[in-house]
Design goal:
Length: about 350
């Protein structure tokens, strides 16, 4: 009799165990909402750790993950500017069963492959900073968190126009009624680089300035200080007495341009990001202005939106964020800084 009772109890326990296994949370992230008290696993793909702005975003993600009202475990990967490497890193994160993905794509033109893998694994994807096409993000029912790239260019154009209106002779040094300028571009085809390059000039023209690029196409310096410095030195040798303004897609290139000018011109140089080094350059009078891209605000938004996604909630549920008019993004505002 005792044997029959024990056997019955064991069978019942095994049946309950099997039922629990079928109805519990999945090891493959994103398939089931997380239970209260479960740690959230966020996989973070970063295009390149040594990018100055992105390093501020990384720090902010780590800070706000620690401060979150749920336990968050981060698994952050450095793509080192190599899309193939990042593809492999995504495979690893998927195999680890992360609950949501924060994706800073190396190559936005290759982001469809990332989106496809996230969708196949049923893991929610939050793209950030480097903006893929809308259809890419929507193909995996994801979201993009970032700035509106054209705004940075518009603000640079406005800063130059404001300086011109305040003292025309200080900007138009040769008095020809035109502003001779050059632009340092981050990288060809990058949506942010393209928009910042286009709209800085377009906005200056909208404000009434006649812009002259002296036949010099945007100089690609890949967001790097040393590359911008080398190219600026060459431009100073060829056109140093003609250059009246310098637009740069980021502060690192602006600092390179300033180093290349080496005190031989007071043409205003404009950057983007408001990095610590960029702000120091503004305070010392070496840089005319920058546009703040708020890395702390970006990191805060990513943690909140990523945590929601990991728990099966709407991306912006319970937050102060709003979906942009485009229907697939949350936009972090820029701010111009001249002092």
């Amino acid at each position: 009799m005792k044997k029959k009772i024990v056997c019955g109890m064991l069978c019942a326990a095994m049946s309950l165990s099997l039922l629990a296994g079928c109805g519990g949370g999945s090891e493959e992230g994103g398939k089931d909402a997380k239970k209260d008290g479960d740690a959230i696993k966020l996989g973070v793909l970063v295009y390149k750790y040594d990018d100055t702005y992105i390093s501020t975003v990384r720090s902010a993600i780590e800070k706000y993950a620690k401060e979150a009202d749920v336990e968050i475990k981060l698994d952050m990967q450095d793509g080192q500017g190599d899309q193939s490497k990042q593809n492999d890193q995504l495979d690893v994160l998927i195999s680890k069963g992360v609950d949501a993905l924060l994706i800073n794509a190396v190559d936005t033109g290759s982001a469809q492959g990332l989106a496809d893998k996230a969708k196949a694994a049923d893991i929610p994807a939050v793209f950030f900073n480097r903006e893929p096409a809308k259809e890419v993000v929507e193909s995996c029912e994801g979201i993009f968190v970032g700035t509106t790239a054209s705004e940075a260019g518009v603000m640079q154009g406005d800063m130059l126009a404001d300086m011109y209106e305040a003292d025309k002779e200080a900007i138009d040094k040769n008095g020809d009624g035109k502003i001779q300028y050059i632009v340092f571009k981050g990288e060809p085809g990058n949506p942010e680089a393209e928009a910042r390059t286009e709209y800085a000039v377009k906005q200056a023209e909208e404000r009434g300035l006649v812009m002259d690029n002296m036949g010099i196409e945007p100089l690609v310096a890949n967001w790097m200080t040393d590359q911008a410095q080398t190219q600026m030195e060459a431009q100073m040798s060829a056109n140093g007495d003609k250059i009246e303004a310098v637009f740069c897609n980021n502060d690192d290139m602006a600092l390179g341009a300033i180093a290349g000018i080496n005190g031989k011109s007071d043409a205003p140089v404009f950057g983007v990001d408001a990095t610590e080094a960029g702000m120091e350059a503004i305070k010392s009078g070496k840089m005319a202005g920058t546009v703040k891209q708020d890395g702390d605000a970006m990191g805060k938004a990513l943690v909140a939106i990523g945590a929601n996604a990991a728990q099966g909630k709407d991306f912006i549920e319970g937050t102060d964020y709003e979906m942009a008019e485009d229907g697939f993004s949350v936009r972090i505002p820029y701010a111009p800084i001249t002092k």
